[in-house]
Amino acid sequence: MNLAPRASTSRSGRLAAILAALSLTAGLQLGLADDASAAVTAGPVFNDPTGTVAEQRAIRTLLIDHIGRSESGSSIKASVYHFWDEGLAQALADARARGVDVQVMLDESDVSDNADDPSYTVLATALGTDLTQDSFVGLCPVNKSCLGQPAQGASINHNKFWLFSQLDDASNVVVQTSSNMTPSSYSRFWNDAYVLPGNTAIYTAYSDYFAELAGQDWANWRYTSTTSSPYKVYFFPRPANDPSPGDTVTAVLDNVTCTYTESGTTKHTKVRVGMFKLTRLAVAQKLVALQKAGCEVDIVYSQTDSGSSSGTWETLHASGGPALRCYNWDDDGNTNTASRIIHSKYLLIEGKYDGTASQKVLWTGSHNYSGPALTKNDEALLKVDSNPDHDAYVTAFDAAKAAAVPGTADSTSACKGISGTPED
Q1: d(CA 143, CA 141)
Q2: Do 199 and 82 lie in a common domain?
Q3: Strands 270-277 and 345-353, how do they pair?
Q4: Is residue 50 in a domain?
Q5: Predicted confidence (pLDDT) per residue in 291-331, tens digit
Q6: Helix axis angle, 58-69 relative to 86-97, nearest 10°?
Q7: Which residues span the domain enclosing 41?
Q8: Do 156 and 270 share a structural domain?
């Protein structure tokens, strides 16, 4: 079954067709799923906010499909920052009615930021709110993630992942996405999802993390990661008292060799970043250093910060820095509605990584390159070693880059983080 956006004769349709083919190829070539999971395509799915309604809702459609195929006696677990989609909430309610255990953890702002949206009420009525039961919808504390330390200040449950224990033809399915379940996330924000069926170790790691979120035992939480080739997943926050403090993303970038020789030819590693928020100074400085060391660094972003805060806009724009495109555009002139943005949070490396040449590796998830994403928020970051999946992300990156406005003319309040970007 092909779960990527359907093709059309439009430019966005042609992009969708390319991405669909790449996603299918990824699942077939890598052997990422066992026979029981073969009908679920492993790999990426992208929405196209410039395309048809079907193309905009590609990720939502995938989730609706998986919810509908969940078998009685199986479970669905989801951790989402904002869930403002009554139709999707009703699909979960219907799954519960036919015998599926459904557990959902949301940030408290899901309710307080949009009290008029009926989605939470639909979920609470169908699932209940008792976190000790087989089905429930739960909220993290006010102004706090489920696992962040209160002493660290305000934080959020920023996760966006879905777990399906048994579909009609697949088991242990993880869907890690950058997308909230909101209208703007479909029609105005560039997002991605990665579908990972049949890997018991990664599924179990996500399921255990979900239990930690529901337990909200922040005092005993420790940053963790799990590896099951070709995947690795990292779970946040990485609190100040973590026994191995550090920056997960700069540690990844430390493994990049920018200039190397292969078969007598000098080559340069390509580093591509598609990022909603890039405000972590250490990451910005590392990306600049890689560009100066001979890497080809290309960034499409929606928000940095400027001046008295970390100054990532100035750092990235210094002489000799990476190629930059800002995608943060109020095309309708209404400051009360969401701008068009890239909302994904992915890193693509093509070249020499971790001492090995000809690598194609990607990282995606809910993790922005911001301070709170590292030490305060509930987040998940998924690493995938896969040539075809990497290439599918490059296609999506190129499409977002081509559509980016204001693009290189990015000395704007929105691009510098001086003005905010409403969720809806």
Answers
A1: 6
A2: yes
A3: antiparallel
A4: yes
A5: 999 999 999 999 999 986 679 999 999 999 999 999 999 99
A6: 10
A7: 11-221
A8: no
181 occurs within a structural domain: yes
Domains of the chain: total = 2
Rounded CA separation 147/157 (Å) = 8
pLDDT in tens, 103-152: 999 999 999 999 999 999 999 999 999 999 999 999 999 999 999 999 99
- Lookup: tokens for 385: 């070693």
173: tokens are: 């399915």
3-state secondary structure of 212: helix
User: DSSP letters of 79-143?
Assistant: EES-B--HHHHHHHHHHHHTT-EEEEEE-THHHHT-TT-SHHHHHHHHH-S-TTSSSEEEEPPTT
Residue 356, pLDDT score: 96
Same domain for 181 and 306, yes or no, is no
Report the chain (424 residues): mean pLDDT per 10 consecutive residues.
32 40 35 45 96 98 97 98 98 98 98 97 98 98 97 96 95 98 97 97 98 97 96 94 86 98 96 98 98 98 87 96 97 89 98 97 98 97 98 98 98 92 74
Residue 226 belongs to a domain: no
Question: Are 88 and 204 within one domain?
Answer: yes
CATH number at residue 394: 3.30.870.10
> What are the residues facing 365 on neighbouring strands?
381
DSSP string, 385-419: E-HHHHHHHHHHHHHHHHH-SEET---STTTTTSS
How many angstroms from the chain centroid is the CA of residue 386?
A: 17
With respect to residue 98, please indicate whether it lies within any of the assigned structural domains.
yes
Q: Please name which of 276, 92, 304, 66 lies closest in space to residue 188, comparing C-alpha atoms.
A: 276
* The residue type at 134: D
